[in-house]
Predict the 3D structure of the following.
Amino acid sequence: MSGVVNCAAYAGGRRVADVEIKDISEVLKQRDRFVWIGLHEPDEDLLRQVQQEFGLHDLAIEDAHNAHQRPKLERYGDSLFIVLRTAQMNREQGRIEFGETHLFVGANHVVSVRHGASLSYAEVRARCETTPQLLSKGPGFVLHAIMDFIVDRYFPIVDALEEELDRLEDEIFGERFSRKTTARIYHLKRDLLDVKRAVSPLVDMCNRLMRFDLEIIPDDTRPYFRDVYDHAIRINEMVDALRELLTTALEANLSLISVAQNDAMKRLAGWAAIFAVPTMIAGIYGMNFRVMPELDWPLGYPLIWALMLGACGFLYLRFKRSGWL
Amino acid sequence: MSGVVNCAAYAGGRRVADVEIKDISEVLKQRDRFVWIGLHEPDEDLLRQVQQEFGLHDLAIEDAHNAHQRPKLERYGDSLFIVLRTAQMNREQGRIEFGETHLFVGANHVVSVRHGASLSYAEVRARCETTPQLLSKGPGFVLHAIMDFIVDRYFPIVDALEEELDRLEDEIFGERFSRKTTARIYHLKRDLLDVKRAVSPLVDMCNRLMRFDLEIIPDDTRPYFRDVYDHAIRINEMVDALRELLTTALEANLSLISVAQNDAMKRLAGWAAIFAVPTMIAGIYGMNFRVMPELDWPLGYPLIWALMLGACGFLYLRFKRSGWL
Amino acid sequence: MSGVVNCAAYAGGRRVADVEIKDISEVLKQRDRFVWIGLHEPDEDLLRQVQQEFGLHDLAIEDAHNAHQRPKLERYGDSLFIVLRTAQMNREQGRIEFGETHLFVGANHVVSVRHGASLSYAEVRARCETTPQLLSKGPGFVLHAIMDFIVDRYFPIVDALEEELDRLEDEIFGERFSRKTTARIYHLKRDLLDVKRAVSPLVDMCNRLMRFDLEIIPDDTRPYFRDVYDHAIRINEMVDALRELLTTALEANLSLISVAQNDAMKRLAGWAAIFAVPTMIAGIYGMNFRVMPELDWPLGYPLIWALMLGACGFLYLRFKRSGWL
Amino acid sequence: MSGVVNCAAYAGGRRVADVEIKDISEVLKQRDRFVWIGLHEPDEDLLRQVQQEFGLHDLAIEDAHNAHQRPKLERYGDSLFIVLRTAQMNREQGRIEFGETHLFVGANHVVSVRHGASLSYAEVRARCETTPQLLSKGPGFVLHAIMDFIVDRYFPIVDALEEELDRLEDEIFGERFSRKTTARIYHLKRDLLDVKRAVSPLVDMCNRLMRFDLEIIPDDTRPYFRDVYDHAIRINEMVDALRELLTTALEANLSLISVAQNDAMKRLAGWAAIFAVPTMIAGIYGMNFRVMPELDWPLGYPLIWALMLGACGFLYLRFKRSGWL
Amino acid sequence: MSGVVNCAAYAGGRRVADVEIKDISEVLKQRDRFVWIGLHEPDEDLLRQVQQEFGLHDLAIEDAHNAHQRPKLERYGDSLFIVLRTAQMNREQGRIEFGETHLFVGANHVVSVRHGASLSYAEVRARCETTPQLLSKGPGFVLHAIMDFIVDRYFPIVDALEEELDRLEDEIFGERFSRKTTARIYHLKRDLLDVKRAVSPLVDMCNRLMRFDLEIIPDDTRPYFRDVYDHAIRINEMVDALRELLTTALEANLSLISVAQNDAMKRLAGWAAIFAVPTMIAGIYGMNFRVMPELDWPLGYPLIWALMLGACGFLYLRFKRSGWL
């Protein structure tokens, strides 16, 4: 059936059978089994079918169909509905691509629904199957495995954003800033806000998962959620630090632009003065007064050259010394 | 009666009768019925009449009459008084128009009072009547339906504000900013603050509705209020992200203006220098010294032209290379 | 006695007698009576006398005498001591005048002590006396009436500050800003901070009044304090929104000043170039070289005029087109 | 013994004896007595001796010896260790001098240890001794008296900082700002942060003192700590308001500097244009073309003067009208 | 074994034996003993061995192996896993070097695992061994000793950052700022954020340690953790104050750059005017009108010199007086 990526039954931490959606009820008649289904952008029919198999709540199914939810954790009786935002770096375009994963977790099932750009959870499934002693803890552990996988994908993204900030710092303080630097600062800020909005709800969600008194999250899985919680907090802190640095970088940029302007103005002033002096002197000896004794001096012309060059040289040295040129 | 948009009695999720205000007490004698009344800018008489029918509190009625309240949720014994701000985009004028809706919700009634620009709730009523199984949950569900409708109207508004920010970004980073860009940034900020003030109290209100131990909000309606809560939080987050981006945009704008100023100044300086050199040279050979050998050289004039053009050309190339022109 | 504005005994919501301070104990011997005293800047003797009549706490009396307290609510056993800041717009000087009112509220008394610029509470007393059914709730209701009166006086002030912001916006975005605009932004900020400090403690005070388990605040007066609470929150929110807008306005102002500076510089550069060209050309043909063929052309002079005018015209058009002039 | 400023035993609110450190245990054998010791920068021996007399905790003694603690309140069993920062205005140097006072308060003792610049508590002691009915409440009241004394010393300091801000406002808005204004804004900020750090922990400390269930703080002393609490909050609020105003002042300063720059540039541009016009005209009639009819006109020279003066006058008036000059 | 820095058994506060990792179980058979092991960047084998000896949790061991954790405190049953960031000033490079220490604390063991730049805890061990009465409190006291040691290492770092700010202030307000000043402000900000992230989690961690109801932290060790808590808060406050001052310094810097720009522009304008006047005058008397009476005056030339010098002198004095030059 299109949209179903994987659907298998597990018992005692081991995969016991691949199942069809329609056979699920049959399979679950045996106790201590749970079914782990992976869906990718399923159509409404498929979702309705899954809903009936596990008795999921209408509102949750609607959310899973519509996507564009914010990350959240909702408890419906003994089962959980979880929305997470996934992220991947599109290296070619230098953009972060966000996707969405919805999880239904109950005593005998884990259903993951992926939307948009997102990695398959085949890797998570494979890794879980190699550690049967952990997988035998049931759907709660699968939930942890998927959350852990999603959160860990944010680390390379934050690293990429940190590198971008490093490059921006080099531009700003290396006197190579341009209009583009400002635009890139702005877009980095935008990316940071997006990552923040995707990750920050996770902190509260993990917190609640650790405190829930739910059969599907046994006591010995809690440290694992604390682990995810730690990672989410770390990403949050890194993003916050980046935002604060970025704000400072923008201000530093502004003040360096002003310094540059200052320097340009001083140079302008300096050279204007150097040109103005001989122009003024030449103007004076271009006057047509009948009686201008200097004009008749045999050495008048060379003297005036000396005066002009001397004045220019004096100004040049003075400006040079005071750092204006 | 003017001001009454709709007034009907419901039983078991179905509309059983249209009623006149004055007949309400009669109709409500039958158990398991509730009345849903829609009023639009009612006069005081009408409000007093409704107050008497359901025994509403004086203070709530005063609020409903005066309007200009902030969104709030008040509990009077077993009934609720709710104030919400509605919003609509006036596409023609590019302005957001805010209205106000006051809701009185009790065990056997829902009264909505609309003020100012706001859509009719006829659509909500129609939609509710198509799902009798939900409407049979009673006034609590009607309350949810109206709140959901109001909150959902904010999404297109926030989208419009996001588009406005996108347009502003294009202007700022596309070197097409002007005085108007700054004014538009300011007005976008103003709109965001207005939306924020209208939506942010909803988060707390939904939270309290989910926790209230009230007969009119049965357990199985709570997930619906959680849904409204989620939407309110999402709008809040979008608005906060927009505000932060806007602040950064304003700063980026300022720093780009400084860069532009810098560029203008460099150009000014460059051209000033290019003009100053031949002026100075010409001034020198305009002096009237008796003895100025160059003036008598046959090739003096062409040589001076060559000197002036050479100097200008040299300066032009140098400024061009260092990016000043 | 100087300082006593009004002193009357109430029973069952009606004024039963005007009393002298010294007769209070006598009057209060009858049960279900309470005394409402209004004082204006009383001297220490009067305060001590009042203190003895009702057994008020030393610290509260000291506070009431010294004034210059921040708004606060203190509970001494079964009675309350409340400090509020009142505000009035002095339209002539365009300044906000703050005063202070101290209230002692006990089972059988309400004492109000006014300091500085403040309206008399005669109006509150008159209004209360017209609704005996409410006034019969006792001192708790009187407390509400006075708080409500004081809080409502802040609305016209906030409105005046909003108008001032509107005027500032017009100046800033209408290109009519000046040194005074910045000074006015600053003073508006100062006023907003003053109003904030006067009103924000009220939110917490009303909150505590609603939760106190005090005989003088019966259950059915609580909605009235919730009303004051709502108003205080609304003023707070309005002030906060104004502050945020003001910050943005100050930044917008700064960026518009930079834009204006930019425009001035471009104009300066443009006109400088237009003047520099003919000056340079004229300088060249003012040189005294023996051999300068153009000087002997019969049409040399008109041609040079054409050249100069042409260059100036070309530059003028080009600058005009690129928006520099 | 050096370091001991005062050491006396009190009973029933009255000083009963001056005691030597070594006799303390003897004196305290009588019940209902407490000892109040004032130390100033004691050496380690003296501190150890006091420690043994009252059985104080090692860590507290270490703190009292090292000083440079932040204000804090620690409970060791039934006794308290309190660190406070004192402040004094050094009027001559215009600087705030901070000191530190450590207090050990137990059922039968109050030990104050002063470090750095700080007033003696002789005044507090004298004032307490004049009100035996209050002093008889025991060490808890002495603690209040000292805290009250310390907090009240901050009011003149905050007043001095407010005056400094007023002076800065006058400079900024009176167009008399200079490099020094900015430096003074910065140093005012620094002072405000220091005061904030010294006072803000007091709010929480008083709060805890009011809630402690300690024998040494009887119920009827609590209103007195509430009083200190109020003062601490007021100073906090004043400092916060000053900080916010200062931030705005710094921004206003920046924008006024830009306005001033704008004005300077406009003047520069205006006068440059006024000088450029006659220079250009004179240049033209300084050309050496053979055929320049104007040169031969008898009225050519006066006409050119008229032209030059007319052009300058026209420009002057125009710039004057548009506010550039 | 490589990676093991020190491994000893303690009883009654005294070191009773140096032990090999493999003999630990043997040694711990005797009651009232605990083992204190110091590891430095251990390989996985060693960690696994230690894990088996004390039954440590898988997740904690993984963390200790991977490092790059944020400071945290995790409770696994009766034992604790603690991650701390250590810091050292690299004086030569003027950089702060961060390291990481992981601590496993149980009833009979303390295991410290150091990563990256960090001082050995040999000093802590030595100091603990000199105070057997304290060391006899067991692993809880060792934990305190190590935390105290780590936190105290931050004080010289914060002092160094304060000195850097002082130097920056001198540059900014001493008119010696340059591009490098801005870059150094930025890097100071970056360092402050790093220190903040390393220290701020400690406040919460100490708080939890004081409240834990754990056998390994007996009641009489709690004041010691309160001590660490105080230090962590003090460092936090110092860092926060530095950050706020730095922000103000950056703004002050920007406004001083603008002032400097202003001054440069005024000077430019002043000198331009002084040069422009004689140039203009000379231009006028360089015109070739046939009739220019002044040219024939015998004193024309000296008079014109007087005029030019007079005008320049007048302008110079005027600009000097108004502070433009």
Summary: The mean pLDDT of chain C is 88.
